[in-house]
Write a structure and sequence with these properties.
The chain is an alpha/beta fold. It has one domain. 30% of the residues lie in helices and 20% in strands. The chain is built from eleven helices and 14 strands. The strands form two sheets. Strands 1, 2, 3, 4, 5, 6, 8, 10 and 13 form a nine-stranded mixed beta sheet that branches. A five-stranded mixed beta sheet has the order 7-9-11-12-14. A hairpin with a 2-residue loop joins β11 and β12. α1 runs parallel beside α2 and α9 runs parallel beside α10. The longest helix is centred in the first third of the chain and has 19 residues. The two termini are 33 Å apart.
């Protein structure tokens, strides 16, 4: 930690600034000389423990240093699938008093993948209710310490299934709303279980929003129709991206989760990225893109319903594994590699290419 701290102070002393500060961890499975990214496998416990250590080290090293940082990314890239920062680590940082200074004041882009505490499964089972009530002061304080944020990407990784976990996710959005980010114009939310009301109130609270991306969002109550209508008809948003949204549908008296299905002209398909050994299977019609400048129709409402039948079994298996890899509910299956693993060339993993941004 002292080495990193001294590096930051030396850069600051010479008038330098950082365009991007990104945290990552590596995995050593076969030997001590071959580093691999987390999506190649390895047990979760040391990966999560390393992420927590890196988070503590980073903020402690920045304390008292006025090194300007423009963009901060905490484990929220496709390279860091199966890795996240526990929220209680943020609770341990007193952002108001340790003088993080210009490092956070100048921050315009923040991207983070967070999760609940990283503990043993047996301990976890006895603390579900405590976790559901755990406060989010650390996340709120971090956001409040970054008043200049214009672009925010917030993803949540669920360690295991938590009863009534959607209430906790709603409180994450409350912390976001209470942070009073006055310049926020681009927002991405990933891996959250919410209600229609929680999501709609959050979006309405940021009049400055111009770009919105919702990925793997599940509505436990309500539907996405009011969300889409607000974004396209009421608000001034210019660009929208939706990917793998689910909500509960009344089927013969029973509420069952169904994936939202989009219709042209909003449906988009993924590209064949050169990083892959082969193209990752697509999830047909579950992705949508909206550009206000390109929409010359009088009815801007995004046409959608839900998939009445499941995908082809190959799509279902790929989709489920993708969800588990990126957003949790592993249910004790340690060491399971990400679904990205067969599709990425190992010799290219340390050439920085974010699969989400390619």
């Amino acid at each position: 930690m002292e080495l990193l701290r001294q590096t930051f102070f030396n850069l600051d002393a010479h008038g330098a600034s950082l365009r991007v500060l990104r945290t990552e961890v590596v995995v050593y499975m076969d030997d001590t000389t071959t580093p691999l990214l987390p999506f190649f496998g390895g047990h979760e416990q040391p990966i999560w423990a390393s992420a927590a250590h890196v988070g503590r080290t980073l903020f402690a090293s920045l304390a008292g240093c006025d090194l300007p940082v423009q963009s901060l990314n905490l484990f929220n890239t496709s390279r860091m699938v199966r890795c996240s920062l526990p929220l209680d680590e943020l609770n341990r940082v007193d952002f108001a008093s340790i003088r993080l200074g210009l490092s956070l004041n100048y921050l315009t882009e923040l991207s983070l993948r967070v999760s609940d505490r990283h503990v043993d499964d047996q301990i976890y089972k006895g603390l579900l209710e405590e976790f559901a009530q755990d406060d989010l002061d650390g996340l709120r304080s971090l956001l409040q310490a970054c008043p200049s944020i214009q672009k925010l990407d917030l993803a949540h990784f669920s360690r295991v299934f938590i009863a009534k976990g959607w209430k906790r996710h709603g409180r994450i959005l409350q912390a976001l709303t209470q942070s009073n980010l006055r310049y926020l114009h681009c927002l991405t939310l990933q891996g959250l279980d919410l209600t229609e009301r929680e999501l709609l109130i959050t979006l309405q609270g940021f009049a400055t929003l111009r770009r919105l991306s919702l990925r793997y969002i599940s509505l436990k109550k309500g539907s996405f129709t009011p969300i889409f209508d607000y974004c396209t008809v009421v608000s001034s948003m210019e660009q929208l991206e939706f990917d793998s949204l689910t909500h509960k549908v009344d089927l013969h008296g029973d509420l069952e989760p169904r994936i939202v299905r989009f219709y042209p002209p909003w449906v988009v398909r993924s590209e064949d990225f050169p990083l892959y050994n082969e193209e990752i299977p697509e999830y047909p019609e579950s992705r949508a893109s909206y550009r206000r400048a390109l929409d010359d129709s009088t009815d801007r409402r995004i046409k959608h319903d839900f998939f009445h039948d499941v995908f082809d079994v190959s799509y279902v298996n790929s989709w489920n594994q993708d969800m588990k890899s990126r957003f949790g509910h592993l249910r004790g299956k340690t060491g399971m590699p990400s679904c990205l693993q067969p599709h990425v060339l190992p010799e290219r993993t340390w050439q920085y290419i974010d699969l989400d941004e390619t």
